[in-house]
């Protein structure tokens, strides 16, 4: 007998199964995340003179501060013009995506950070995610949400 599995559970389970990215086979998405994010900090891959690392949480919770900092790096479209405003509507244009206000409310709660993960998922993440990378991005500790909601 087939069991009806909710779509979000199917998607979450897919993150913890083998996958291929750029001809590399990974046992799960956590290990792929390590390689991808590690490359962001590799100066031979991304020159610090030409690239910056911005967490999506910073764009969400500190949009103007991020844009002001990016303008300091010489982004011409941000210099001297009108200060851009974050999109309030659903960015992807479909009903499944949160509005900005919904996202701010949802992601401000630490309990929502892992609410869609099973205990097995959390165990795999704890085992496989690179702790040094988590610390560099302030995704470690008891309440990482504080690193993006606090000013």
Automatic annotation (TrEMBL):
It comes from the Eukaryota. This is Sulfotransferase domain-containing protein.
